TrEMBL record:
InterPro entries: cNMP-bd_dom, cNMP-bd_dom_sf, RmlC-like_jellyroll. It comes from Olivibacter domesticus (Pseudosphingobacterium domesticum). This is cAMP-binding domain of CRP or a regulatory subunit of cAMP-dependent protein kinases. Residues 15-115 form the Cyclic nucleotide-binding domain. SUPFAM superfamilies: cAMP-binding domain-like. Keywords: Kinase, Transferase. GO terms for molecular function: kinase activity.
């Protein structure tokens, strides 16, 4: 069950076979069914999840009951409420399963122990954090300065098969547009291609 994780790690750093063998006990493999919650708003995020198979998403529900999708996490992606995970504060987000999933969970204690036992993983985690910050900055800039079509094309570039894997209303929520606007954008792109 660790194949995707090792492929992901291998793109950033090199682990020896011994380090790979040391790494696996720090994670808890878990299977989730579609529509199950990994985290619910108000609970403390006790795990960071690495997606080996399937699709997860994090989202918030506002006072009017509208969902605001924060992140989609397909295979090879990490997902958590980092603020809750690091501070022990109640989560602001829900994380649920959009497709049956196999994930690897790691607690904060296990993460610290892993970084002590396998020092090169510290570099891997730093690279992940840097990439996460860059991604968040790009998402904010895109949301503020791009039109709906540019945002949609940007998401398709980052997640090429997302439109086939998630419902249109969730994708529209992630883009910060209405489902009707997304339909219009998709029709226009089809017409232009």
């Amino acid at each position: 069950m660790f194949e995707v994780l090792f492929e992901h790690i291998d793109k950033k750093i090199t682990l020896t076979k011994e380090e790979e063998n040391k790494l696996t006990p720090f994670f808890i493999p878990k299977k989730y069914r579609k529509r199950q919650y990994v985290l619910q708003q108000g609970d403390i995020c006790k795990y960071i999840a690495f997606v080996e198979k399937g699709m997860l998403r994090s989202f918030q529900v506002d006072d009017k009951g509208n969902e605001h999708v924060i992140q989609f996490a397909p295979e090879g992606w990490w997902i958590a409420d980092n603020y809750s995970f690091l501070t022990g504060s109640p989560s602001s987000y829900d994380i649920d399963v959009l497709e049956d999933a196999e994930v690897l969970l790691i607690t904060q204690t296990a993460l610290e122990e892993m970084l002590q036992a396998i020092p090169v993983m510290e570099r891997y985690m730093r690279i992940l954090m840097q990439n996460s910050l860059i991604s968040m900055q790009n998402r904010i800039a895109c949301t503020l300065g791009s039109n709906a079509e540019e945002r949609y094309q940007g998401v398709l570039k980052a997640l090429p098969n997302i439109a086939q894997r998630v419902p249109q209303h969730m994708l529209a929520s992630f883009l910060g547009i209405t489902p009707e606007t997304l339909s219009r954008v998709r029709r226009q792109l089809l017409k232009n291609s």
